[in-house]
Amino acid sequence: MTVWDDLQGQDAVVAQLRQAAHGEGLTHAWLFTGPPGSGRSNAAKAFAAALNCDQADVSLRGCGECPACLTILGETHSDVAFVRTEKVTITIDEARELVATAGNRPSSGRWRIIVVEDADRMAERTTNVLLKAIEEPTPRTIWMLCAPSPADVLVTIRSRCRPVALRLPPAADVAALLVKRDGVDPAVADRAARAAQSHVGIARRLARDPDARERRLETVRFPLSLRGVTAAVMMAEKLLKIATEEANSSNDERDATEKTALLATLGAPESGTLPPAMRGQVKQLEDDQKRRAKRSITDSLDRTLTDLLSFYRDVLIIQMGNAVELVNLELRSELEDFASRSTAEITLARMDAINKARKRITTTNVAPLLAIESMASSLI
Ligand SMILES: [Zn+2]
């Protein structure tokens, strides 16, 4: 096993990063771009592990087995920081703190590495704080910024970073990964990868959780019964409820895993009360998890709207007489019927309305319910 194994369908990126980790073309600032689910932060993490891997032989770096690789993949290495915002944007204070950390020499590894997962969620003023650090790098520091596309970060930042462009892997590659890594049944893996539109994390959830599959199906069926304003208001409420349930259920699973891992690291007793010193650390983790929960509802809502969008995407494909495979194959007859009752122009306008709502929810502080209600009424 190596740190590159999970980067399914990203051969070009793996080759580029491997080469850099071996010392060819290494630079101090990188910009990882790719659509959500393409694995840009995983790619950055694998690269960080390969750079700080304990193997003496350069060609073996990124072994995935040494303490450095394992702690970096587990996000507990002292020289590798992961920055992901729990809020809608990264604040200027957080950016200053990052820059201060970046100035320190690595304590054990070869490099101090800072992975900024949401470089697109920074105000211009905040970006300028980072820019200064990236312009005048400290010798042993490497910045890795992640964003959906190069256009999502300021050109001044972008021009100083080496680009790493991930693509959305084909659904077949995602399905193969689920079968190989998670032992999912091939037919289930195939359906999940298609429904998740190749988003690896979502595909995995859909494959393993029948409730998640049920929630998704409920979402994509909404347009079929959307007849009037009352239905639109109800749809908005229901979508928000589905997104919240989805976020809570994936958080619960992750929260429990993190807590078990923390207790194991602390060497906590298997039963009974925790010693006071450990209680503080557990409390800290729980506070972080609560903050994260809020942000994850926004992300989940965006994902729910993407599912809804896939309905209209399929309708449009049918209306254009295109032979591309449908995302929602199981709804084919409903989709065909729906497509025959509108035009491609109307479908495009509806897709615009959904994308507008997504944008409002993820980039502004508008109340999500208001944004979805206004979207739902333009879908009637
Ligand atoms: Zn290693």
UniProtKB/TrEMBL annotation:
- Highest taxon of source: Bacteria
What InterPro entries would the database entry show? Answer: DNA_Rep/Repair_Clamp_Loader, P-loop_NTPase
Q: Name one GO biological process term.
A: DNA-templated DNA replication
Q: List the Pfam families.
A: DNA_pol3_delta2
This protein is called DNA polymerase-3 subunit delta
